[in-house]
Amino acid sequence: MWVARRFLSSVAQRIGQYAGQSGLFRRPPHGCLPELELRYLQCTCCWRSRVPVAGFETLNATISSTSEPCKEDNRSLDACYTSEQRDAILQLLNTATPSEMAGVKLLRGRKSLNIVEYRTKNGPFKTLESVVNVPLLKHKSAVIVFNSILNPVKKERKVRIQLAKFIRPEVDRSWLEDATSIVSLVCGTNKIAWAHVDRGMTVLDWQQLECPNFLRGTYMASAYLNDVSTVLALLPSADFYVIEKSSISVQNTALFPVMAHMRTVEAMLFALLEPRKSSPESNIPPRVLNMMRIAVGRHFGLMVGESRTSGAQTVRQLMTESVTQKLPRINFPPELLVKYRNYFQMGSRRGGEELCDALLQAVAFYELLSESSS
Q1: Separation of CA 66 from chain center
Q2: Nearest Cα to 90, choosing from 126, 66, 56?
Q3: Measured between alpha carbons, how far is 257 from 224 in angstroms, rounded to an integer?
Q4: What Å distances lie between residue 156 and 87, 96, 230, 288, CA to CA?
Q5: What is the mean pLDDT of residues 10-26?
């Protein structure tokens, strides 16, 4: 106890000794902070080793360099940026498509569409201040958008870092985040359906094709190749092709013919859609990916035990939200809404399950990717 008291007394004396000197404990005079020379902290064990501490001028410089522009409410947005910065911002906002603007912070979804609609109706933006006239883009949001355009986030590319359990093969997330669009493919027993969706969550193409040779006769390879090649001739170009991975177990002998059929079509799609060979050494990501059917079902709450129920009702809800909500989960062009408005009604015999699954897989892909990035 006596040793502890003596130690505390010694520390108190040291503090009193340095408090009267110009150092860390000196009270700054009224007004602005003083510009101090480099100070030092002394080691409390030996009182000889010194550790330099940055002066106030270093701190001030750091704060001023990291502060965001345009913090003064009485300044216009154009006054917050240089002429070169204004030109760069306006160039992107006046020329970029919704999918290109999706890479800018806060511009994914409805905001990018509002920008395109506004400039189409009123002409190109001439000032930064005019951007706040766009619906959903107020002053604070506009500043964040402008700063994101001027300082885009650069992502390091690494190959074979697993994205999540629902994607195979393993791919770095940055490759997927940089993709402009994907094509989601689902194989059925007699058809193949696909949905082409861009990064701005807009459906670009959505259809299916009957495959008359599927599950017929002795599973002739040439007949299967003919059907699959016909589908590939209609597929749009995309950065990635995401093929549904069926959840049929190899131990289910009753469904073994269906499983063999699914694997055959899946293998053909991989071979025909992946002309280049990806490898860690070449730093080229795979173009064709598998997505687990169970993961999509769980994402939309379609699982009952280990079985997945129909997604027709979920697709009808997405189509309704596309018309009734300002910020829907996914945007449909009018022609697709008209084409499929009665396609997924209860009791319909149109056979649209593959269409539903292809669309839901694309939506789940982007939403799960966004969740894993946050």
Answers
A1: 26
A2: 126
A3: 14
A4: 28, 24, 38, 21
A5: 50
The whole-number pLDDT of residue 111 equals 82
Three-state SS annotation for 307-374: EECCCHHHHHHHHHHHHHCCCCCCECCHHHHHHHCCCCCCCCCCCCHHHHHHHHHHHHHHHHHHHHHC
Neighbours of 213 (CB within 10 A): 17
Q: Looking at residue 268, what is its pLDDT?
A: 93
Rounded mean pLDDT of 338-366?
85
**pTM, entire model:** 0.58
pLDDT of residue 321: 93
Q: In this structure, how many other beta carbons lie within 10 angstroms of the beta carbon of residue 90?
A: 19
Distance CA(224)–CA(117), nearest Å, equals 45
Give the 3-state secondary structure of 104-140.
Answer: CCCCCCHHHHHHHHHHHHHCCCCCCHHHHHCCCCCHH
Q: What are the backbone angles phi and psi of residue 137, rounded to the nearest 5°?
A: -120, 95
| Cis peptide leading into residue 169 (ω within 30°) | yes
Confidence at residue 106, expressed as pLDDT on a 0 to 100 scale:
76
User: Tokens representing 109?
Assistant: 């979804």
Average pLDDT, the chain: 78
What is residue 169's DSSP assignment? S
Q: What is the DSSP string of 69-94?
A: S---TTS-TGGGS-HHHHHHHHHHHH
> What number is the average pLDDT over the span 180-195?
95
